[in-house]
Amino acid sequence: MAARPRSGTTGSPGEIEMRTVLLLTIATLPIAAQNPAQNNGGFDPHDLSGHWNRTSRFQTFSNVYSGQGSRQGTEEAPLTEAGKAMFDKNKPGYGPRAVPPAIGNDPMGTCDPLGIPRLLNTEVITPHQTMEIVQVPGRMIQFFEWHHDWREVFTDGRPLPKADDLEPTWNGTSVGRWEGNVFVVDSAGFDQRTWLDKFGHPHSENMRLQERYRRVDKDTLELTMTLTDPEVYTRPWVSDTKIFRIDREKPKRWDEQIYCVPTEEYRFNQRVRDEAGGRGAGK
Amino acid sequence: MAQRSIHYLSAVATILASACLAFAHHGSNISYQLDKTITITGTVTEWDLVNPHPQIYFDVKNEQGELVHWAAELLPTPLMLKNMKAGWSRTTMKPGDQIALTCNPSKVTGAKACLAKGLVVNGKEWPLGPGAAPPAAQGK
Q: What distance, in Å, lies between the first and last C-alpha atoms of chain A?
């Protein structure tokens, strides 16, 4: 037998309660749809702002052997012959090819700008160096605590200039857009004096970089990158997934302003590191 | 010029766990013998609490009674300062202070530079590393 239609507020107490819940749910749907934070466990996936510490392990562009920790890398950097020659000329202070700073040429040793993507790969390390993301109309800005460096990503819809129109810069030229909940940053125009990481992986001025940021929950930001640089790498090189955790205590602290000061670095190298590396005064 | 009381005590090799590798600045791991420590006492000539590493410069009297100038680097400065409870400051040491320093020696024979692992200043032990308590909290 078909159920008799009901109207008004008639019905058993249980049925009334169920309908009330249903009506309240329907009534709040449009509000929730306009406020992504209510749909995503208390966060807006398009809000990347905050202080972030990288907690994922690899300080290289990807999972290549760096000599750190007990686990070795599982990937070879896909260097071209020219890339291999550039790599051999870079003398890092870290990893399996490390040399004493006295005979090395890591740009860090002279406080040269570290550039993108090295700042992302290596220098945002918990607990003492963070990256702050600030989103303002038309721009996303990343502040890097180490070296007090910062970088702009334009989000006003402008296209990335043609490579021939770009003068190389330390952090490159970057534009960003949203693809769903993924913030995609395309960059070009990099100064080739920077390294990809502290292990000496090189790049050319023609490197193109795509970063894909995704806030996976209120505390976690993921980043994967794809590097395209045919002069130096045989194929587009995809990074490991960099994991960043939010640091809500950071704004409450009085942390040091972490500058790399050339005069201090020079003095330190001259008086300590050169001596330790066998290049002390008179040697 | 005030006479400096300088004593060269010992150089002792011991095996150490390299727990602080992750904190190393560029070149720390490759420049020093991380599996050995030496203990040196001397007189501070200079204390530089600057980047990239705080540095102690000090005079040591060798077995021939000659003054030898040494330098030691500490952990990266941001890590040293992160835990302000430790109280590191520009006045932690001053010229003339007596120190006993335990450190990793250079890989280069005869080099007078080392990586500090333990520090006693005028009889008070100072923590090297984030999270350690300052001398006052240790009752020293």
A: 104
Please indicate if any CB of chain B lies within 8 Å of the CB of A114. no
The answer to whether A264 contacts B50, with C-beta atoms less than 8 Å apart, is yes
For A205-225, the pLDDT digits (tens) are 999 999 999 999 999 999 999
CB contact, 8 Å: A256 with chain B? yes
Query: Which residues are CB-contacts of A65 (< 8 A; sequence separation ≥ 6)?
Result: A72, A73, A95, A96
| C-alpha count within 13 angstroms, C-beta hemisphere, residue B113 | 26
ω into B95 cis (within 30 of 0):
no
Give the pLDDT of chain B (140 residues) as one tens digit per residue.
333 333 433 333 322 223 333 344 567 778 899 999 999 999 999 999 998 899 999 999 998 999 999 999 998 888 787 755 667 889 999 999 999 999 999 999 999 999 999 999 999 998 775 555 444 444 33
Strands B38-48, A139-144: pairing kind = unpaired
> Among all residues of chain B, which has the CA nearest to that of A107?
B26
Largest alpha-carbon pair distance within chain B?
42
DSSP code string of A37-48: HHHTTS--TT--
The neighbour count for residue B61, using CB atoms within 10 Å, is 17
CA separation for the pair A171, A116 (Å, rounded) = 5
Instruction: Give me the phi and psi of B103, to 5 degrees please.
Output: -155, 165
Question: B88, B21, B53, B26: which is closest to A123 by C-alpha?
Answer: B26
- Residue A83 contacts residue A231 (beta carbons within 8 Å): yes
The single residue listed with the structure tokens 């972490």 is A258
Q: Residue A256 in contact with residue A250, Cβ under 8 Å?
A: no
pTM (global) more than 0.90: no
CA–CA gap between residue A184 and residue A177 (Å, rounded): 5
Model-level ipTM above the cut of 0.85 = no
